[in-house]
Write a structure and sequence with these properties.
This is Succinate-semialdehyde dehydrogenase. This protein is α/β, with parallel strands linked by helices. The chain is built from 14 helices and 22 strands.
């Protein structure tokens, strides 16, 4: 089946890889010949097809990664740094084309997609700089004459499973530290958004990443089979996954027999708290940035907005006015601020949350409806006031453009409500009281806190959660540690007197 050619023309059409995956430096099809289709969430039109890999295909990719690891682990950190930096530069040189691919298969507006490309490339730049600085330690021994030191070694072949909401950044955030550490990888592209990852594979080839070091496989119906193959393989020593808590639990169980090193970045349900001493304009703008980025389809977006009663009405009015200024449409259209959701199932969930809130006393101040004239995957950016803890929005992650505003009175009350969630990825609060900043930041049971800002993602910052949001950190100098093991060496008999005395 021929791909749809409605995409705005690419400066480099060879970045659009159709009907192939990338294994051992070669573009390959599934051994079975099976494929799956990928559709534009804005128009519903076919974009193209990708190989439906199965267990055999995945095992082949693992074998190539294992063979490449033997030599790649021997490369110097500086050599790996140069490769990553070249890959970074190629991404920036092709930023416009990569953004067009992201918008095509994900739906986010082109401006947002360009921002994602720069953010994603930043992980290659960051870890190109971390690679030469992965130092061990010299440790004073408690036994006279012994000397102790540690070295950092790559963990081995890594299986990486990424989601659709950031088709570029979720890959580079994992691949960057893995290659910086000297590991080789088998990465599975998201079934809904595989073409961005395949473009990154093309750029990896141009950057001189050796054959077998970076393998990008694909699958949709066989996702469970691919995941099980990665987790059960004795060759794969590390699995990193970003996605739902339920799938993360399954992958952890599957990894138990082989005792894999794991990084799991799972579900979020972020509280967003505005205290009455906050700067109102700053808080409103922060809430807009956090809640409605990518139409609310981010794991760290604000899901439960708690507003102190003294400023509740003012905040709600100002926030609603901002949302009224949004323009929803296809990501390539001029002036569009928000695109579609990824598929109609996402729209169904969002609509159910809105209807539930209305039924239980919530008032929609803007939005609240599907947008069938635009397409089946569009939903109006929505604000709901009068929220209470009995509503689905209070306990379930919406993953869509719906902001429910919950009133609160005291600091303790709101922290207790925020911490009631079983997950703990990100949390946000706005306050100009320095003592409160420290108290609340330390009291929130989350892995990341934004204070007076709605945007916390940065390659320099450690990204990850607590509780049912998983464990492990991505980005920052902590990120490379997830792909390394610490080897200790003890030298005995080193305390002999100097010769000639």
């Amino acid at each position: 089946m021929a791909p749809n050619q409605s995409i705005p023309p690419l400066n480099d059409p060879s970045l659009f890889k159709h009907d192939v995956a990338y294994v051992n430096g070669e573009w390959v099809k599934a051994k079975s010949g099976k494929t799956f289709e990928v559709y534009d969430p804005s128009t519903g039109k076919l974009i193209g097809i990708c190989p439906e890999f199965d267990k055999s295909d995945t095992e082949s990719a693992i074998a190539h990664a294992a063979a490449a690891f033997t030599s790649f682990r021997q490369t110097t950190p500086r050599q790996r740094a140069r490769m990553l930096h070249k890959w970074y530069q190629l991404m920036m040189d092709n930023q416009e084309d990569l953004a067009k691919l992201i918008t095509w298969e994900n739906g986010k507006p082109l401006t947002d997609a360009k921002g994602e490309v720069a953010y994603a490339a930043g992980f290659f730049e960051w870890f190109s700089e971390e690679a030469p600085r992965a130092n061990g330690d010299n440790i004073p021994s408690s036994i006279p004459g012994n000397r102790i030191y540690t070295i950092k070694e790559p963990v081995g072949v890594c299986g990486l499973i990424t989601p659709w909401n950031f088709p570029a950044a979720m890959i580079t955030r994992k691949v960057g530290p893995a290659l910086a550490a000297g590991c080789t990888v088998v990465a599975k592209s998201p079934g809904d958004t595989p073409f961005t990852s395949l473009a990154l594979a093309e750029l990896a080839n141009r950057a001189g990443i050796p054959k077998g070091v970076f393998n990008m496989i694909s699958g949709s119906k066989n996702t469970v089979e691919i995941g099980n193959t990665l987790t059960s393989s004795l060759t794969v020593r590390k699995v990193s996954f970003t996605g739902s808590t339920n799938v993360g639990k399954l992958l952890m169980k599957q990894s138990a027999d082989t005792l894999k090193k794991l990084s799991l970045e799972l579900g979020g349900n972020a509280p967003f708290i505005v205290f009455d001493d906050a700067d109102l304009d700053t808080a409103v703008n922060g809430a807009i940035a956090s809640k409605f980025r990518s139409s609310g389809q981010t794991c760290v977006c604000a899901n439960r907005l708690y507003i102190q009663k003294a400023i509740y009405d003012k905040f709600a009015a100002a926030f609603t006015e901002k949302v009224k200024g949004f323009k929803v449409g296809g990501g390539y259209d001029e002036g569009v601020t928000h695109g579609p959701l990824i598929h109609d199932r996402a729209v169904t969930k969002v609509d159910a949350h809105v209807r539930d809130a209305e039924k239980k006393g919530g008032k929609v101040t803007v939005g609240g409806q599907k947008m069938p004239k635009l397409g089946s995957n569009f939903f109006e950016p929505t604000v709901i006031t009068g929220m209470n803890m009995d509503m689905q929005l209070a306990s379930e992650e919406t993953f869509g453009p719906v902001a429910g505003l919950f009133p609160f009175e005291t600091e303790k009350e709101v922290v207790d409500m925020a911490n009631k969630a079983e997950v703990g990825l990100a949390g946000y609060f706005f306050s100009n009281d320095l003592s409160r900043v420290y108290r609340v930041a330390e009291a929130l049971e989350v892995g990341m806190v934004g204070v007076n800002t709605g945007l916390i993602s940065d390659p320099a910052a450690p990204f990850g959660g607590v509780k049912l949001s998983g464990f492990g950190r991505e980005g920052s100098h902590h990120g490379i540690l997830e792909y390394q093991i610490t080897k200790m060496v003890t030298l005995g008999g080193m305390g002999q007197p100097l010769q000639g005395t």
